[in-house]
Amino acid sequence: MKKLAQLPLHQKARVLGISESELKPKLLEMGLYPGKEVEVLFKAPFGDPIAVDISGYTLSMRLSEANLIEVE
After folding, report:
1. What per-residue confidence (pLDDT) applies to 1?
2. How far is it, in rounded angstroms, from Cα 42 to Cα 39?
3. Which fold would CATH assign to domain 2-71?
4. Which conformational region is residue 71 in: left (phi greater than 0), alpha (psi within -120 to 50 degrees), or beta?
């Protein structure tokens, strides 16, 4: 299974699920729920943070957060 943090720039993927963590409710509230399409828009020079597009808005997140999100 692939994690959101592993996606290359400008690749779209569909969220499969979020690993259990204290951040899971927050990530779900931000629109990262199963079936949602996301696209990696930006990666900082050292890879952290990244910016993803979710339904037309840009969300910036740390790689540690993006590693909680499984995509296909």
Report:
1. 82
2. 9
3. SH3 type barrels. (2.30.30)
4. beta
Pairing assessment for the beta strands 37-43 and 12-18 based on DSSP bridges: antiparallel
The one-letter amino acid code at 2 reads K
What is the reported pTM? Answer: 0.90
- For the record, the structure tokens of 61 come out as 């997140």
Q: What is the pLDDT of residues 33-42, one digit of tens each?
A: 999 999 999 9
In contact, 68 and 27? CB cutoff 8 Å: yes
Q: Which of 72, 70, 54, 60 is nearest to 20 (CA)?
A: 70
Q: Which two tokens stand for residue 59?
A: 């969300």
**DSSP annotation of 20:** S
**Pair of tokens at residue 38:** 């996301």
